[in-house]
């Protein structure tokens, strides 16, 4: 894209001698969904809190929409950024409408916008209920509504779907994709690698206060070159196991793998020039039960970075 809306350079942060960030460098392009992936304590939330002015960095620089940010965000820039952190900060004794009205007044937002958001996030039927009676998923959806009141250009979601019911999580994921269609920039910190793979244009792997790598999910997976055919065969119980193993060792390549369990042969064939020839030879000898293509996923990429 090469149209950065956020530029983070050499960001460092210490907490009582513990170096939480050790020179974070990251460029975020306008209109993209970028995922921040990493284990607990990697530095994801600290980076986001510095980005939103909730913490100040010890070293480094941040530019947002071309403007340098030192410690506090200027008012005009705050209005351009919507933030949803993992912990809830709603007013639990107020209902959903009043929670949004409170912030709508600050941002000069119309009642129509409140009604629109409640409808989009499937909260219209619970709009007059006290928030303390909401499920975790409903609270999270309301927090996103609040973050979107002023129609920000940037939305930051820290573990937005963590621990939510499937319905709430899916509503949020679909809305994230629709925000991209509207040209919004979304920064998504998540533990769910499948979610990042589905939603994100790029992902940044962060660990021990550093960005290890940034790229498209597909590019990371392609580098692993993990692609194989997984087959299951029924084994005749009268066949000799030694003969079966001898046959397989004569057919399979070094990178292929197999296991024999309870009369079933599980076979993993790597994609190479002999793939179909190997599959045909085994299928001619044993009864095929199942076949599927398996490719590398972000979990494998994540594991590689954290080993």
Automatic annotation (TrEMBL):
Q: Name one Pfam family in it.
A: ABC_tran
Keywords, in A-Z order: ATP-binding, Nucleotide-binding, Transport
What InterPro entries would the database entry show? AAA+_ATPase (IPR003593), ABC_transporter-like_ATP-bd (IPR003439), ABC_transporter-like_CS (IPR017871), ABC_transporter_ATP-binding (IPR050763), P-loop_NTPase (IPR027417)
Signal sequence span is: none
**Annotated ranges, domain ABC transporter:** 6-233
* Coiled coil feature spans: none
Q: Does the keyword Nucleotide-binding apply?
A: yes
Q: Which domain of life is it from?
A: Bacteria
Q: Which GO terms describe its molecular function?
A: ATP binding; ATP hydrolysis activity
Q: What is this protein called?
A: ABC-2 type transport system ATP-binding protein
């Amino acid at each position: 894209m090469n149209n950065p809306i956020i530029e983070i350079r050499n960001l460092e942060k210490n907490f009582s001698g513990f170096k939480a960030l050790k020179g974070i460098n990251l460029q975020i392009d306008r209109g993209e969904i970028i995922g921040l992936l990493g284990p607990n304590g990697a530095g994801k939330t600290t980076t986001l809190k510095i980005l939103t002015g909730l913490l100040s960095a010890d070293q480094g620089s941040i530019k947002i929409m071309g403007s340098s940010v030192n410690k506090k965000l200027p008012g005009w820039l705050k209005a351009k950024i919507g933030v949803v952190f993992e912990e809830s900060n709603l007013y639990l004794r107020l209902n959903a409408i009043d929670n949004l009205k409170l912030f709508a007044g600050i941002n000069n937002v119309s009642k129509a916008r409140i009604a629109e958001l409640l409808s989009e996030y499937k909260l219209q039927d619970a709009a007059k209920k006290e928030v303390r009676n909401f499920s975790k998923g409903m609270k999270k959806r309301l927090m996103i509504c609040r973050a979107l009141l002023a129609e920000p250009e940037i939305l930051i979601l820290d573990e937005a779907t963590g621990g939510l019911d499937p319905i709430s999580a899916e509503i949020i994921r679909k809305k994230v994709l629709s925000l991209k269609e509207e040209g919004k920039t979304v920064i998504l910190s998540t533990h769910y690698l499948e979610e990042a793979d589905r939603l994100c244009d790029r992902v940044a792997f962060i660990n021990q206060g550093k960005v290890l790598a940034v790229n498209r999910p597909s590019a990371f997976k392609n580098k692993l070159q993990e692609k194989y055919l997984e087959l299951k065969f029924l084994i005749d119980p009268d066949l000799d196991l030694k003969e079966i193993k001898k046959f397989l060792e004569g057919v399979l390549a070094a990178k292929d793998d197999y296991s024999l369990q309870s009369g079933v042969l599980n076979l993993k064939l790597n994609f190479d020039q002999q793939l179909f020839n190997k599959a045909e030879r085994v299928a001619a000898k044993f009864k095929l039960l199942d076949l599927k293509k398996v490719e590398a996923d972000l979990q494998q990429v994540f594991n590689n970075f954290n080993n």
